[in-house]
Design goal:
single chain, 344 residues, alpha+beta, Alpha-Beta Plaits, Double Stranded RNA Binding Domain, three-stranded antiparallel sheet, 9 helices, 11 strands
């Protein structure tokens, strides 16, 4: 950061400043933890059978152990894009109206999780269902290691419950596909070259709740990348230009991810396998009837309090997936040479 000319490139300098701040915070965290451990040793030497001091010892030892476990999670973020923000798209699968309601429930779950983490969220686009719920939703979660945490959620999610839309109160099974992509930084976006002739850009009127602006101006944007068939939409902003800019950002993220998939030795290195949102392909089951249980098919983790999970308590599943992923890989994932250079 003290090298001459660093700030000649403000974008790169800003990125380096953020990295430096994160590294300083990491060092400070370990310094504090080491000091607490040394203080604990001194307190242990002074205790000498004192019940009150021994109680303080036990409490501090447990607190340090919890902090160490939390720090240990840092070692599990082996993906080179772990520290990026996350772009999440939820799409309806089998299940009709019930599945559309499930899409909305999942979006609420992730927004609640982000709120617990004090992460910033931005809803880019939602497509309402005919009767209830959503056909699809796209939003961004911004925060430290957002993609590294949320990539565990990529895949098909299955819900079993008594349908509130069935007058006969029968049990229904619904599916939704959750796709998680890293939001690209400027250095990553440069690697994605898009030919303007490969794009079809449509404008339409925004839908959903809103003020007098909604349904009166063609501010919503739909971009179709003709060679790949990828379609992205954005209607969150009042300005058509801003919606177009955000839609292009999401499109670049998806194209970048596609490039990584094609280059990866394993198809799921960056994004995970693309599976149909139907029975037999789910990564997690949420059962609300006849009992309550959320079970991750990959890790085997089970949580009986399904409502807490739907209210955003996802950390046990995320941690279990990170440990499972590391055990499956056997070694940390290595960034590409260009990405490694950027991180240096």
């Amino acid at each position: 950061m003290v090298q001459p000319g660093v700030w000649d490139d403000p974008a790169r300098a800003g990125q380096m400043a953020r990295e430096a701040a994160e590294l300083r915070q990491l060092i400070a965290t370990w310094d504090r933890l080491e000091k607490r451990a040394r203080d604990l040793i001194e307190l242990d030497q002074l205790a000498d059978g004192d019940p009150e001091l021994e109680k303080q010892l036990a409490e501090e030892e447990a607190a340090i152990a919890r902090e160490l476990r939390s720090r240990e999670l840092d070692l599990l973020f082996t993906d080179p894009y772990a520290n990026h923000n996350a772009v999440i798209t939820i799409s309806v699968g089998q299940g009709g109206v019930e599945a559309q309601d499930w899409v909305e429930m999942l979006m609420r779950m992730y927004l609640k999780w982000a709120e617990r983490k004090h992460f910033e969220t931005e809803i880019l686009d939602t497509s309402p269902g005919e009767e209830a719920g959503l056909k699809s939703a796209t939003f961004i979660v911004r925060g430290p290691r957002a993609y590294g945490l949320l990539r565990s959620e990529h895949g098909v999610h299955r819900l079993v419950r008594i349908s509130p839309f069935d007058q006969n109160h029968r049990r229904h099974t619904s599916f939704a596909l959750v796709e998680v992509m890293p939001e690209l930084e400027s250095s990553d976006e440069a690697a994605v070259v898009i030919n303007p002739q490969d794009l079809r850009i449509d404008t339409y009127r925004s839908t959903g709740a809103g003020g007098q602006h909604v349904n009166k101006t063609d501010s919503a944007i739909r971009i179709t990348h003709l060679p790949t068939g990828i379609v992205v939409t954005c209607q969150n902003e009042r300005s058509q230009m801003k919606n177009r800019e955000m839609a292009m950002k999401v499109l670049k993220s998806r194209l970048f991810q596609r490039q990584q998939q094609e280059a990866a030795a394993q198809l799921d290195q960056i994004r995970g396998q693309i599976l149909p949102a139907e029975f037999g392909s789910q990564i997690r089951n949420y059962v609300l009837q006849p009992y309550t249980l959320v079970k991750d098919v990959r890790t085997g983790l089970e949580v009986g309090n399904a409502q807490a999970v739907l209210d955003g308590d996802l950390d046990p599943f995320i941690e279990a997936w990170l440990r499972w992923r590391l055990s499956q890989n056997g070694a940390p994932e290595k960034p590409s040479a260009s990405n490694a250079e950027r991180r240096r």
